[in-house]
Design a protein that fits this description.
Length: 324
């Protein structure tokens, strides 16, 4: 593939993702990269098991260095009017900077910090900001959307190469996946550092359910942090590397309490919720515990869904609210 064709593929805007989904895909890259190298020894990350290709630490070093100017481009396009963005020759970087001597953990920390910095800024932007433009020295006029898409695609371009090195070294992947009707639903456990994205989804879930909870996204984020730091666990589900759902649950001695299950709006009515429950029951949850979930009686669609995946009615909560 010619360089011009590669850049067109990386920077093209196909319009398939809204801004919320694009930010989620961009942030998900943090976990994707960490999962790609998880469990590898210092010797393995330095090895070059595929002839003529970079080592794992060289690949991650390239991703972290590239992220420096991806982040700079994104931030300057937001802050300035049509800034000039200079191209870079990746081969000169690896040749002159000595990636093979880099520390893998430091490179992962750098990549993570840069993406989290940009994510916080992107989440603050109004819809019209995504049309802001910059002038790339090689590609010409680019929008903010295209710059974020390029960062997402660049990482995804390199993940198969990291997987190739793992396979050549015989290192197993730590993330489970499940196939159904030619669509792969993958999952991974999230860390407390991911609570911002979960809080945004939780806010959408509350509105979709018609719940009277009026907590803001930051308040929900703090609540989510508290839950995950104590006894709750969260699982994010992906299709083709893009987050599409999450589940939040608490395991007790004789019970698995599922507090939240959320599927992004554009992916609903495609069987993802049902498949997520099946994956939790077969891959995550022990089979010897009672499963419970709470649902608003007015949310008839949710009641029907939970019954369809095997839950049965066992109780009804009644209430009298105080005068307003």
């Amino acid at each position: 593939m010619q360089q011009s064709e590669y850049m067109a593929m990386m920077q093209g805007d196909d319009g398939t993702l809204g801004s919320t989904e694009l930010i989620a895909a961009y942030e998900q890259g943090i976990d994707d990269l960490r999962s790609a190298v998880a469990g590898m020894t210092p010797e393995q990350v330095l090895a070059r098991p595929v002839p003529g290709k970079w080592s794992t630490v060289e690949c991650v070093g390239h991703l972290a260095d590239t992220e420096i100017f991806f982040t700079d481009r994104i931030v300057r396009t937001i802050a300035m009017d049509r800034p000039l963005l200079m191209s870079a020759d990746e081969n000169l970087y690896i040749e002159r900077l000595g990636y093979q001597s880099f520390n893998l953990d430091e490179q992962l920390a750098l990549f993570t910090a840069l993406r989290r910095h940009a994510v916080r800024i992107l989440r603050m932007q109004p819809p019209e900001a995504w049309s802001r433009t910059a002038v790339h020295s090689d590609s010409g006029l680019l929008t903010l959307r295209q710059l974020v898409l390029q960062a997402v695609r660049h990482l995804r371009h390199h993940l198969p190469f990291l997987a190739e090195k793992r396979a050549a070294l015989g290192v197993e992947h730590l993330v489970e996946s499940w196939d159904s009707r030619s669509s792969q639903l993958a999952f991974c456990f999230v860390r407390t550092s991911d609570f911002d994205q979960l809080a945004e989804w939780n806010h959408q879930l509350i509105r979709d359910e018609g719940h009277r909870n009026r907590m803001t996204v930051p308040e929900l984020g703090e609540r989510m942090r508290g839950w995950l730091e104590l006894d709750y666990r969260a699982v994010v589900f992906e299709l083709a590397g893009i987050p599409v759902a999450y589940a939040l649950f608490r395991e007790q001695p004789d019970e698995i309490y599922l507090r939240q299950l959320f599927v992004v709006r554009e992916r609903r009515r495609q069987g993802i919720g049902r498949r997520a429950i099946e994956l939790l029951r077969t891959k995550v949850w022990p089979t010897n515990k009672r499963l419970t979930v709470e649902v608003l009686t007015a949310n008839t669609a949710a009641v029907a869904f939970w019954r369809s995946v095997g839950y049965v009615d066992t109780s009804l909560t009644l209430e009298i609210l105080p005068p307003s």
